[in-house]
Structure formats: structure tokens, C-alpha cells
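Residues pack. One example:


***
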Amino acid sequence: MRRAAVILAALLAAGCDGPPPAVRLTLETDLAMPAELDEIHVLAAASRTEAGQICGPTSRGFRLSATDALPLRLVIERGETYTVWVWARIEGFAGGRRILAREVVHAWPDEGVTEVTVRLERACVDRTCGAADQCIEGSCRPLQMPGLLDDAERIDADRPCSGDTP
């Protein structure tokens, strides 16, 4: 099976001796590609506070044209400013229509790469949950940071995540 590795957001740390700490998201699914799932959009941000003062989110889309397009591995590197946690929203599409979404928040590792697996599940296709919830394994469960992008005061719009520099 082909494995795609992509640097989603180069939140590069200046002056480091080794590679910066990172989170590697591995996206998996039980949906048939491209018949049931033909595109994934990933939106990512990082926070400089526990409460969620984030850099301007960065995004990337992936067309899934073959059955071996997943698992997809996305490496997000920690920068010098936004070092508390990383957030990502993963949306799955079929025929241009969003059919499911997942969000994940994970603390940055002190060093090395932390593995985080996100599964896009058939049981969650077209499942409607409340605004503060998401579907996991067919059930609505609370989001870790509900409404993160709804409060403009929490986003450092002049500091895009894709270029975290001091």
C-alpha cells in the first residue's frame, strides 16, 4: 500500500540543532476510495497558551483518486512561539459534498515525533452532532476545543501557522 508523507505546516524552529518536535497525523478510513471518499481537507493550527491563542490556521486539500491513497501521513512541526498544543480539523468529501469531519487536539512532544491516528469512519458519514460535539465510532462525543475558530480574539491573524517565526 502506498504511504504518502507530507509536511503540512512547516512551523520551523530557527536555530535548532536537530529536527523540531512534531506530530504525525495518520489518516485512515473504512470508506471505499474514491467511490465513497474522494477528497480530504486538513486545517491545522497551533497554540501558544493552554486556553487556545492560536496562529492563523493553514490548510491543505488532498484528492483521493486511488484505493491506496490512505493511510495518509501528515507531519506538523512545532515552531518557537506556538508550543503548547496542535489542533487539526480533518474533513472528508464525496462528490464535492462534506460527508464527515473530525477534530483532534494534541500536546506537542518535547522532542521527536508523536503519532496520532485519526480514523474517518463509515459510521460517521452524514451523522449530525451538536455544535460542541463530533462523531467518533458512530457516536457523538465532545470536541476538545469547541468553537476554536469562531472567536477572532483567539486567532493571531497576523501570524500564520505556515511561517511561525519569532
